[in-house]
Amino acid sequence: MAKDIPLRMEILSEGRDDQLGISSAKEIELIMHYIAEKGSRVALYYDDANNFILTTLLGADETGLWLEQSPNGFENKRIAESSKLVFVSSHYQVKVQFTATRANSVLYREYSAFFMPLPKVLYRLQRREYYRLRTPLINPLHCVIGAGRGTALKQPYDFVIMDISCGGVGLTCKETDTELKPGVSYPDCQIDLPGVGTVKGTIVVKNLVVLTSESGNTICRAGCEFKNLDSASTTLLQRYITNVQREKART
C-alpha cells in the first residue's frame, strides 16, 4: 500500500524552483482529474498559510477545479475572504502544490464547494528524494554518452538504463568496465524517451555498485546524477515518468 504524502506547504523561491513547475494547462488538468478520481487528500491553506483544512477535489475541467467546503462555516468564510490560498496534494506519490488568489463559494453537483481557476503553474516537489522509476526490461532506455572535447571517453558509449528519475539515472555496466569513474562528469549525454522527446545534458557518476541477480549473475550499476539539467529536460522526464506510471496503473 502506498504511504500518504505529508501535505505540508513548501516555501518556493523565485527562479530556483522553475524546473519543478508544470505550465501546460492540459497536463495540469489531467493531474487534477487524477487527484479527483483517486480521492487523494487535499490541504487548502488560507489566512496567509496560518491555517488550513483537509478537503477533497470534487472535479476539474479546463476552466478550474471544485473543492469540497469545510463543515465549519467560519472556516469557509475565512477561505472565501483570503487573497492567497495554497493547494497541496499528491500525484503518483509526489507532492504537488500551487497558489491561488481566490476561492468562490458555489454549488457543484449539490455539494457546497469552492471554485478555483486552473493554475498557470503547478509545482511537483521532489527536492529531497526523487521518485526512481525502474525502466522496462524489454526495449529498455539507453543513455548515449558522446566522446570528444570535455569528456574522458575516446569513443561514444551506449549504456542501458536500469532506473531513472528527475535527479539522475542508474546505468548498467560490466564490473570490469573502466569507462565510468566515480566523481567524473560526462557531458553530451542523450536519452531518448519514447513518446515524449530527447533529454540532453551532463551526468556525474556518484557511485559504482555490484549487484547480484536471483539467477546469480552479477552486474554493475553506475549511479549518476544530472548536472544543471534545464527546465525543458526536467519537464520531459516528469512527463515520461508520469506516462509510465499511468500505463502501469491501467494494467
Secondary structure blueprint with pairings:
Blueprint: E1 21-22, H1 25-38, E2 41-46, E3 51-60, E4 64-68, H2 73-81, E5 85-91, E6 94-100, E7 104-108, E8 111-117, E9 122-125, E10 133-134, E11 142-145, E12 157-164, E13 168-173, E14 185-193, E15 197-212, E16 218-227, H3 231-250
Antiparallel strand pairs: 1-9, 2-3, 2-5, 3-4, 4-8, 5-6, 6-9, 7-8, 10-12, 11-12, 11-14, 12-13, 13-16, 14-15, 15-16
Describe the structure using short key phrases.
251 residues, alpha+beta, Pnp Oxidase, Chain A, Thrombin, subunit H, 43% strand, elongated
Can you count the beta strands? 16
Count of structural domains? 2
Task: State the secondary-structure class.
Answer: alpha+beta
| Mean pLDDT over all positions | 83
Number of helices: 3
Order of helices and strands: EHEEEHEEEEEEEEEEEEH
CATH structural architecture of the largest domain: Beta Barrel
Strand order of the largest sheet: 1-9-6-5-2-3-4-8-7
Query: Can you tell me the overall shape?
Result: elongated
- What do we call the CATH topology of the largest domain? Thrombin, subunit H
Structure described in brief:
Helix content is 17%, strand content 43%.
Note down, in words, how this protein is organized.
The chain has 251 residues and is of the alpha+beta class. The protein has 2 domains: 108 residues, Pnp Oxidase, Chain A; 118 residues, predicted glycosyltransferase like domains (Thrombin, subunit H). The chain is built from 3 helices and 16 strands. The strands form 2 sheets. A 9-stranded antiparallel β-sheet has the order 1-9-6-5-2-3-4-8-7. The model has no long low-confidence stretch (mean pLDDT 83).
